């Protein structure tokens, strides 16, 4: 058999890893050293040289998108399909197992997945029923508590406490929440894993079945597995199963969600004769970018330690840009992206990364203004938008009448005269009868517990759902969605909203229908098409297929950038308190995690990296004047240069801030100030040149023009 294609394009250490005969292999290596590539080639090696059937392979990736790409690459190497191989995220794989064995896992076949928004809704309801005051007991905190327990594999009964109020109250909430999920046939993200873990642990027959089936397990980004994920992996792979694990301790960034770097050491202990291979050559970034990343991460104490070098040129220096505020930061980024595109590069080759989701709004505004196409990756996901969720909730309820979360969401959306009181009546009945809201609602109607008008409205709603299913369920997915949007009057409700928003909602609903049209049912052979689609909507990062192929700038948080790479990268908001985040600054462990996040961010860049910080930023509703992030200071001076808009390189020192004031006609102007011009509209002052009557002001306008104007004649208005 010719193994050339599989070993081609790999260095010595990578080849050793790919073709290793060892049953337990750990590839521990820094960013961009080819870990993911090794994983792909190893799968191809196992199939073609070790003659494993794709059916016997299970691989865990960090995102659904990564899973799709990985499958595609393996198939390319093999020259044939590997569709029998299980590959996906922990959640995706657990979901697949639960669907196949729902009854054994004590779930209805129609169970639905709760995303974190829906989960919070259910928790709120449960806490209200328990008469817990939500100022004293914030539901979000309870949500955090429950998820944390699940991540550690704990049910309410497993939680030990000595009667402290916090834990005992939250345990009760957890217990009641579980009851609510049971009645509703609902499974949250954490539950997917915990439930499959328990299923395999308690059902020897199933465990034997899967342990016999899976002969090789591979995991990418292993450093971010949490307790339950690790336990899950151990259950699915018995001692005869080959295991290949790749990871980088310096990129562990999910400690706040229970991920444990120690799992790497644990792996070494738990499996016999683990062979460790280190990869040291980086193929992704220029010498400069790599040196910067190495310099930053060197400030962490808790490291396994490794060396990373590249044959690549030094490349361009890292550009620093001191913006006056977040608007100006966005303006700078969008104008650089425009230049990049005008030079013949693709938008899709550039990414804007940020620490906190809220930063995307201003960036989006400027990209829109400049008509630069963009896509938010893993942010507010397509399937999380209100109109999309409303429509999906109708469908979920049609397919699973037990789904209380969906019921709550749509029972009075659009408004049909079922106010809080009526809904409360339904909830009370559900509690009294120990049943779900759907059943309770029928009882309320039959017993005429509501006013005649409300009773009539509720009956109409129940009939709508019942008939909707009967009439639509055999139609193509797309039609089911369109008919649901019409029958529910959702479209009519959105149409009443004003302007752009209504338009955007309409477009999103059209997009939902087309996502359904393009949805590949084959990924979930064991499900009905709509159930598969609804599950996909809950699990996917919202990359509808139509969007994937467009040439768009990628916007994402630093957390979601893991594993990805882009020729041009901007990291916005490199400021103390924002990044490192305020909540993480006082504890050494958390600060080290922030630094690993900076390492992840910097190492996403292949050719060119911009780091931006603002001298003034509106944060949490207040104007702040942040200091430059320590992570910028940790990059050696010779690797970075300070840049200015439109003029090229300025002196490589940090600007001391905008302090220069100029008075004209009694109006005071400052650097960074927002101004209005009768012709060019609003803009920001970037610079002053000259003095007195001859002062020239340099303004960058929102329309995209940048002008030098004589201040005395410019008719500028201070905003
Ligand atoms: N031997 C090689 N020759 C040429 N290019 C390579 C080689 N190994 C890896 N690459 C390329 O280097 C880049 C980084 O590889 P890869 O994404 O697998 O690294 P990684 O270690 O998984 O990074 P991260 O830690 O960020 O996930 C990719 O573009 C990959 O195709
Ligand atoms: Mg990788």
From TrEMBL:
Positions of the UvrD-like helicase C-terminal domain: 287-563
GO biological process: recombinational repair; response to radiation
InterPro entries: DExx_box_DNA_helicase_dom_sf, DNA_helicase_UvrD-like_C, DNA_helicase_UvrD/REP, P-loop_NTPase, UvrD-like_ATP-bd
UniProt-listed Pfam families: PcrA_UvrD_tudor, UvrD-helicase, UvrD_C
Reaction catalysed by this enzyme: Couples ATP hydrolysis with the unwinding of duplex DNA by translocating in the 3'-5' direction; ATP + H2O = ADP + phosphate + H(+)
Keyword DNA repair: yes
Annotated ranges, domain UvrD-like helicase ATP-binding: 8-286
Any one GO molecular function term: ATP hydrolysis activity
The EC number(s) this enzyme carries: 5.6.2.4
Keyword vocabulary terms for this entry: ATP-binding, DNA damage, DNA repair, DNA-binding, Helicase, Hydrolase, Isomerase, Nucleotide-binding
Similarity annotation: Belongs to the helicase family. UvrD subfamily.
Name by which UniProt lists this protein: DNA 3'-5' helicase
Native organism: Aliikangiella marina
UniProt lineage: Bacteria, Pseudomonadati, Pseudomonadota, Gammaproteobacteria, Oceanospirillales
């Amino acid at each position: 058999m010719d193994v050339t294609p599989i070993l081609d394009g790999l260095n010595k250490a990578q080849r050793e890893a790919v073709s290793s005969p060892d049953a337990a292999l750990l590839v521990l290596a820094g960013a961009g050293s080819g870990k993911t590539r090794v994983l792909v080639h190893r799968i191809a090696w196992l199939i073609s040289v070790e003659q494993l059937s794709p059916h016997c392979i299970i691989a865990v990736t960090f995102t659904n998108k990564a899973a799709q790409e990985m499958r595609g690459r393996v198939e390319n190497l093999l020259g044939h399909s590997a569709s029998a191989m299980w590959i996906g995220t922990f959640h995706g794989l657990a979901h697949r197992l639960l669907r196949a064995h729902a009854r054994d896992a004590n779930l209805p076949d129609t169970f639905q997945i709760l995303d974190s928004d829906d989960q919070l809704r259910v928790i709120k309801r449960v806490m209200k029923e328990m008469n817990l005051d939500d100022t004293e007991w914030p539901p979000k905190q309870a949500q955090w508590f429950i998820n944390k327990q699940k991540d550690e594999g704990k049910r309410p009964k497993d939680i030990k406490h000595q009667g402290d109020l916090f834990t005992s109250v939250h345990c009760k909430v957890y217990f009641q929440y579980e009851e609510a999920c049971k009645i509703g046939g609902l499974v949250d993200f954490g539950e997917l894993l915990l439930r499959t873990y328990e299923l395999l642990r308690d059902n020897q027959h199933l465990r034997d079945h899967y342990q016999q089936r899976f002969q090789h397990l591979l995991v990418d980004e292993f450093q971010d597995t949490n307790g339950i994920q690790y336990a899950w992996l151990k259950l699915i792979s018995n001692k005869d199963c080959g295991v290949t694990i790749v990871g980088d301790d310096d990129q562990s960034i999910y400690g706040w969600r229970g991920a444990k770097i120690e799992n790497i050491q644990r792996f070494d202990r738990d499996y016999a004769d683990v062979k460790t291979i280190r990869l040291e050559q980086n193929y992704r970034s220029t010498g400069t970018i790599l040196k910067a990343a190495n310099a930053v991460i060197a400030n962490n104490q808790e490291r396994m330690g490794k060396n990373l070098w590249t044959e690549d040129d030094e490349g361009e220096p890292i550009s620093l840009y001191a913006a006056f505020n977040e608007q100006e930061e966005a303006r700078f980024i969008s104008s650089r992206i425009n230049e990049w595109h005008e030079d013949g590069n693709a938008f899709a080759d550039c990414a804007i990364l940020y620490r906190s989701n809220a930063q995307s709004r201003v960036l989006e505004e400027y990209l829109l203004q400049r008509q630069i196409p963009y896509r938010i990756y893993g942010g507010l996901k397509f399937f999380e938008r209100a109109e999309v969720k409303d429509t999906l909730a109708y469908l979920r309820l049609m397919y699973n009448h037990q789904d209380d979360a969906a019921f709550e969401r749509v029972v009075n959306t659009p408004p049909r005269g079922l106010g809080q009181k009526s809904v409360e009546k339904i909830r009370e009945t559900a509690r009294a009868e120990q049943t779900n809201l759907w059943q309770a609602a029928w009882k309320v109607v039959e017993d005429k517990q509501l006013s005649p008008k409300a009773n009539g409205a509720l009956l109409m709603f129940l009939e709508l759902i019942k008939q909707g299913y009967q009439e639509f369920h055999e139609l193509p997915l797309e039609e089911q969605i369109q008919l649901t949007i019409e029958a529910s009057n959702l479209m009519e409700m959105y149409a009443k909203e004003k302007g752009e928003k209504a338009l955007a909602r309409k477009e999103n609903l059209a997009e939902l229908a087309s996502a359904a049209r393009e949805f590949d049912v084959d990924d979930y052979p064991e499900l009905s098409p709509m159930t598969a689609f609804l599950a996909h909507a809950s699990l996917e990062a919202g990359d509808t297929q139509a969007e994937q192929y467009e040439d768009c700038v990628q916007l994402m948080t630093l957390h979601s950038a893991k594993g990805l790479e882009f020729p041009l990268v901007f990291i916005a908001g490199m400021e103390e308190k924002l990044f490192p985040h305020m909540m993480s600054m006082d504890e050494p462990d958390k600060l080290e995690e922030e630094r690993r996040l900076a390492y992840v961010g910097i190492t996403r860049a292949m050719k060119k990296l911009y780091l931006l910080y603002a001298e003034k930023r509106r944060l949490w509703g207040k104007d702040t004047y942040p200091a430059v992030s320590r992570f910028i200071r940790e990059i050696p001076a010779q690797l970075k240069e300070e840049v200015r808009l439109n003029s090229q390189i300025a002196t490589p020192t940090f600007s001391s801030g905008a302090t220069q004031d100029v008075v004209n006609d009694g109006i005071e102007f400052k650097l960074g100030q927002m101004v209005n011009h009768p012709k060019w509209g609003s803009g920001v002052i970037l610079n002053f040149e000259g003095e007195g009557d001859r002062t020239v002001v340099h303004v960058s306008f929102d329309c995209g023009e940048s002008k030098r104007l004589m201040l005395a004649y410019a008719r500028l208005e201070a905003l």
